[in-house]
Please model this.
Amino acid sequence: MAKMLISFKLNGKRVSVEAPVQTNLLQLLREHLDITSPKFGCEQGNCGACTVWLDGEPVNSCMVLAATVDGRAVTTLEGLGSPERPHPLQIAITEHYGSQCGYCTPGMIMSAAALLEKRNGPLSREDVVNAIVGNVCRCTGYSKIIESVLAAADKMG
Amino acid sequence: MKDVQYFAPGTLREALKLLGQHGARIRVLAGGTDLVRDMNLELKLPDNILWIGKLGLEYVRLEKGLIRIGAATRMQTAGDSRLLQTKASALAQAAGKLAAPPVRSLATLGGNICNASPAADTVCAMLALGAELVLSSQAGKRIVPLEKFFTGPGKTVLKAGEMLTEIRLRPTGNKEGSAYAKVGRRQALTLAVLNAAARVRLDGKGNCAEVNIAIGAAAPKPLRAHKAEAALRGKPVTPETIAAAAEVAASEIKPIDDVHGTAWYRRQLTRVLVARVLARAAGLGEEE
Model:
C-alpha cells in the first residue's frame, strides 16, 4: 500500500507521520497519533463527532484526506484545554451539565469554541445554535449545551 | 487494497498536465465532502487523486463587469462574501444554508457543481443567476453555460483531462435581485427535498423585464423553469402573477418519489418555493 509522509502542526507542535494515501484525518489522529478526542461517528459529515480545527476553522476530520493537511495546522480538544488548564467552555460544560454520555462533547466543544474565538460582541442563543447545527447529540436535548456556551461567553467577556 | 497515488501540485499548469497524463484515471479532490466520504463509506478508491487546494482557486472578485469565483472557493467563503451577498444574494444564501459549519469550511462551489447532484444547494442558485463555467485542460479553455453542464444525475460534459476552474456570473444591478429557498427534512445537515432560486429584473414601470427560475431535486438534473419564466416576463409582478408562474413551474418539473419526499409533495413545494423566491427576488417578500 502506497504510504506518504505527512508533516503538520498538531496542537502547536510539529509532527511527521507516515500513513497510507487514502487515510482520512480522523484515522490519522486516532490510529497514528493517539489523539482520541475526535470520535468516529458516521464518516460522512452528518454527526460532527470528529470535529477538529483545520487552520483555525472547524471541519469534519473524517472527510479531510490526511495528505491535504501537510504543512497546515490542526487543533484538537487536546490542544484547546487540559485537566490542569481547562478552556472556559470545558468548565462551563461541567458546571451546566452540558455533557451526558460525552461522545459528542469533544466535537461540540470544537464547533462552539470556534464561535467563541471569532465572535465580536455578545452572542445570541441563535448564534450558538447556528454554530453547533453540525454536531448531533442524542442525550442532552441541546438546551444544557447552549446554556454552557452562553455561560462561557459571559465568563470570557 | 490498491495503491492510490496522490498529487498536490502548486500551479494550474502542473495540475492540467497531470490531468492530461492520467485522463479518466485521476479524480480531482477539492473539499473532500463527496470524494473522501465515498472513499470512507463505499471504499471507492480512485487510482489517482489530484488535490486542487494549492492552485489559488479560492477567490470571489468583480472583474470587467463579471463576478468571477474560483472553483475551489469554499461555502463559508462564498456565504461570507460581501460581493455575493449584495450582487448575487441567491448564491450567498445557498452557500450559507448548505449542511453545517464544519462541512461549509471544506465543501467547495466547484465540487458542488461537479458532483452533479440534482439537489445541490448552490447549483440551483447559480443556475438562476445564469452562471457560466470555465473548463480548463492542456488544450486551453472552453466556456459552458451551467444549464448545459449536466447530462444526468452525477454526469456532466466534463471530459477526461479537463477540470472546472472558474464560475462567472453577471452581478445583479438596479431594480434587480435574486433569492434562494430550500426545504429539507430538517434545518441543517440535510439534502434539499426541493430547492428553488430566482433572478428578477424590473423595468421602470415595475413590470418583469427579465426572470430566471431554477428548481432542484425536481428532475434528473437541476432545471430552469423556462415556461414559468415566460409566464411572468413582461407582466406586472404581483402576488397573482407570481402564483400563476409558480403554478406553471409545478407542471414543468419531473419529480420522483424517493426517500427524501414524494413527487406529489415536490409539486406542492414547487408552488410555494418558486412563489417565495420570485417575491423575494423582486423585492416584494421578506428576506429569510
Q: What stands out?
A: The first strand of chain A starts at residue 3 and ends at 10. Chain A has a mean pLDDT of 96.
